[in-house]
Amino acid sequence: ATPTEHNDSIIKPEISLGHLIRDKYLAEPVLASTVATGFEWHFKMRDGQITKDSYLALAGEEHRNDLIVKTLVDGLAKWGKTLLFAVNIDHCRVLRDMVKRSDSTVPCEIVHSQMPFSHQQAVKDKFHRGEINVLINVEMMTTGVDVPDIKTIFLTRPTESPILYAQMIGRGSRRIPGKKDKFYIVEFTDSTPKHQDILVKGSQFFRTLNYREPVLSERFRRNVKAAVPSNPFKDVPLFDYKPEEGFQNYILKIGDQEYALPINRGQSFGAEIE
Fold first, then answer.
1. CA distance 255 to 75
2. Model-level pTM?
3. What is the pLDDT of residues 97-120, one digit of tens each?
4. With contact defined as beta carbons under 8 Å apart, do 142 and 135 qualify?
5. In this structure, are residues 38 and 66 in contact, taking their beta carbons and an 8 Å threshold?
6. Above 90 in pLDDT, residue 41?
7. Contact between 176 and 183 (Cβ < 8 Å)
8. Inter-residue contact 95 to 112 (CB < 8 Å)
């Protein structure tokens, strides 16, 4: 789910999410519902991230929380096993209590970082076994989680990070051959007078994957050749995503040094060399 890893000396490419979906290694995401909350959210940014105070205002909005719980409980027959990403720990607790008040028969629990580790693990194990049908968390379930029969991801926590967005929806992407080849995403969106283009939204995120268009790379090569006839490379690098071919086509070689370039289909990119 994490597109790239990097440190001070190397950028390591990963196979793109779109590629893995297209070639049926991962289940296909279905944006089942984008729920407009009607809440006017004036969030602030600091060091490129949404501030905690901004999330506090979002978590305490009662009408928004009512809408989340109603959408969850009323559609649970369709949603099935659901992993919900809340805004913060208090939001976890509030939503859990509201679900239980709305329908006490729904097996719903929470997991967060302030719980003892043994309790966290016990809750996760119950969710894995199917004893819990709805699990509410903050960022505890973004990585290192393998629950293949998760059917729906509820995104109640907006994010400015494409990597975090990919990690959250990635928890539903495990395939079960013959039983599960798709999963649902239910996304809650707010009215944001400022910074609205900063937030990652499913409608935009999934368009960038382009996993339905395997011929795009060939067309891209032709367009670049036509537009830049003086291209100094012998050929435009091949943007091929077949895993058996590895990443040899992602390598930029300068002298004896090779640099790996992580590139997603449809993504514009540049390389700066100092």
1. 59
2. 0.73
3. 999 999 999 999 999 999 999 999
4. no
5. no
6. yes
7. no
8. no
Strand partners, 30: 184
Residue 40 has pLDDT above 90, yes or no: yes
Find tokens 């049908």 and name the residue: 133
Radius of gyration from C-alpha coordinates of the chain: 21
With helix as H, strand as E and coil as C, how does the chain read?
Answer: CCCEEECCCCEEECCCHHHHHHCCCCCEEEEEEEEEEEEECCCCEECCEECHHHHHHHHCCHHHHHHHHHHHHHCHHHHCCEEEECCCHHHHHHHHHHHHHHCCCCCEEEECCCCCHHHHHHHHHHHHHCCCCEEEECCCCCCCCCCCCCCEEEECCCCCCHHHHHHHHHCCCCCECCCECEEEEEEEEEECCCCCCCCCCHHHHHHHHCCCCCCHHHHHHHHHHHHCCCCCCCCCCCCCCCHHHCCHHHEEEECCEEEECCCCCCCCCCCCCC
Centroid of chain to Cα 180: 19
Residues near 64 by beta carbon (within 8 Å), at least 6 away in sequence? 37, 39, 58, 188, 190
- For residue 93, the Cα-to-chain-centroid distance in whole angstroms is 23
CB atoms within 10 A of CB 67: 18
Torsion angle of the four alpha carbons 2, 214, 262, 155, in this order, in degrees rounded to the nearest 10: -20
